[in-house]
Amino acid sequence: MGNRANSTNVTETDSVWEPYYDAYQKAVVQDMWVISCITLLHLLVFAILVRMEISAPILKKKKKIFSSINSLLLSIILLHFLANMLNYAYSSSLSSDPIYIVTYIIVAWFFTCFQECAMTFYAYRRGIAVIEAIFPSSRIFMIGCLLFIAFGTVCQFVWVSLANISFYLPYLTDYNAFFNKAFNAHSVALSIAIFCFDTGICGVYLYYLRVAEEQEIGEIEKLKVLSKYGLLSCCCLWLWHGSLTLFLYSSYAETPPFPLWIYILSQNMAELIPLLYVTVQLVMKWNLLVEERTRIQLMQKRMDRAKTTSFSTCKTIVKSKSF
Asked: What Å distances lie between residue 194 and 56, 129, 152, 322, CA to CA?
């Protein structure tokens, strides 16, 4: 995600932003190394789990490599990496060409906005089974919420693009302050909307775990796994949206509104928490595979027991008839 605080020309606020800019550049380099290493690990684990998923015995229909859940999770991993790679390339560049700078920021923001969309759609896709178990007719409402958030994310991308373009185009300079305020207000409103969406899903998870506490068989165990890891996922999303909103508000302010340590902490959290989120999803995927395999084995044992009982009954009947 581009940081407009370090994309300024020589202005009156340069001396104020200078220590923030220096700390920002150092943090970007450090975070990029962490993100690169962990992303490679995530991709490796993801490939192994997908391989296990499609080769495992199944109960119903054949599983696809690029299912909606797998595609969304892979998109989250790649979009986060690409956004931070562009951010790193931009912050490390010595070019002062406005077109070059704005292009880097806008493309990085494109990846960040679609990553945000992918995470929201993934949360819905993962949680819909639990949600419909509690509220069977909630799908249309949930889809409406998703479309609203997707539209809000597109608008956020438009505002941030205008804010950065207007900073360099002379005939839009007078509107720069307006675009910055609009972007900040929209980002806060969108974060609140996503927070409410995630909180609603979190409430459903908590309710399901409470009502399903005494049940331990069949699909219920699968929904319990989804609910437990769904709660962890919601916590990650809350932290990410909060830190991202705080970082953006700081970056697009005329003067730094927070101390340097808060600014850098919000930057680090905004860049690294998605890695924690993906880790939670991969661990959940592993536990779902284990649960499904256990369920299949249990069903197979029941079928074998039923066959044995049926055979014994038939044998008894035949013997009784022979007498």
From this structure: 35, 20, 10, 73
Rounded to whole angstroms, how far apart are CA atoms 283 and 281? 5
Q: Which residue type sits at 110?
A: F
Please give the distance of CA 130 from its chain centroid, rounded to a whole number. Answer: 18
At which residue do the structure tokens 């609140």 appear? 192
Task: Return d(Cα 163, Cα 179) in angstroms, integer.
Answer: 5
- Alpha-carbon distance values, 319 to 244, 309, 311, 312 (Å): 76, 15, 12, 11
Tell me the Ramachandran region of residue 256: left when phi exceeds 0, alpha when psi lies from -120 to 50, beta otherwise.
Answer: beta
Name the DSSP class of 214: T
pLDDT of residue 16: 80
Q: What is the C-alpha to C-alpha distance for residues 186 and 95, in angstroms, rounded to an integer? A: 30
How far apart CA 308 and CA 298 sit, in angstroms, is 15
119 vs 190: CA distance, rounded Å: 14
Q: Helix, strand, or coil here: 254?
A: coil
Q: Give me the residue spans of the domains in the chain.
A: 16-295
Q: How far apart are CA 321 and CA 89, in angstroms?
A: 86
Query: How long is the chain?
Result: 323
Q: Cβ contacts of residue 258 below 8 Å, gap of 6+?
A: 246, 250, 266
284 — pLDDT class (breaks 50, 70, 90): very high
- Domain 16-295 has what CATH class? mainly alpha
Q: How much of the chain exceeds pLDDT 90, in percent?
A: 30
Between 309 and 158, the more confident residue is 158
